[in-house]
Sequence to fold (243 residues):
Amino acid sequence: MTDFSDFRNNGYILKRNLFSKDEVLKLIRYIEDNSEKEDQARETFSSTGKLNITLWNHPSDDLFGKFSTNERIVKPMEEFLEDEVYHYHSKVIWKKPGDGGFDWHQDYGYWYHNACLYPDMGSCFIMLDKATKENGCLKVLKGSQKVGRIGHGISDTPEQTADLDRIRELEKRHECVHIEANPGDALFFHANLLHSSDANKSNESRRTLIVCFNTKSNDPYKENSHASYSPLKISPYNSIMEY
Fold:
């Protein structure tokens, strides 16, 4: 199968070693030495506990921006979504030891309410630390994007999560895949793919940079909390190490 057919059939594709160890290490050092991103984090809660997330709408004029606009993620995303894409938002999940995960949901379950008419959207999940079952790696229901948008916000969990009755049935029909991965690996996934993660039960952090994209033709029909279309200035392959 091609990457395109895998993405269409499964709702996701994992690209190993998309970014080098040196590139990821450079970003981690940047976070520790220069970045204010972690200080800007907000707390969110799920059934598994609290989690800190930093979110921003426009590509940062910093090392984060060299990742979020890099041709290595922009060009595949345009192939998968069959359209020009723009930066919808980026976020870092600071999953420290003891932090919770997040409950089953679709990203489009939320983005639908941001005036995006179609689910022609996707995310790239870049591992900054090793992701394992023990530290709460991402879980996906393989092929679940095919069910279309599911109602969100009708469960009793702290965050607005997907309809739990449907989740229970879908878990019987779709394989649950744990995305265990190394720093520099990147997961591309469709906005309707159901995904979740468990709490971090390890002694190590599981930090992740997530870059979310919308298609040009799916520009929100009214102003909302996330970015509207503007042409994306794509960063060349080597821009990270040259920064």
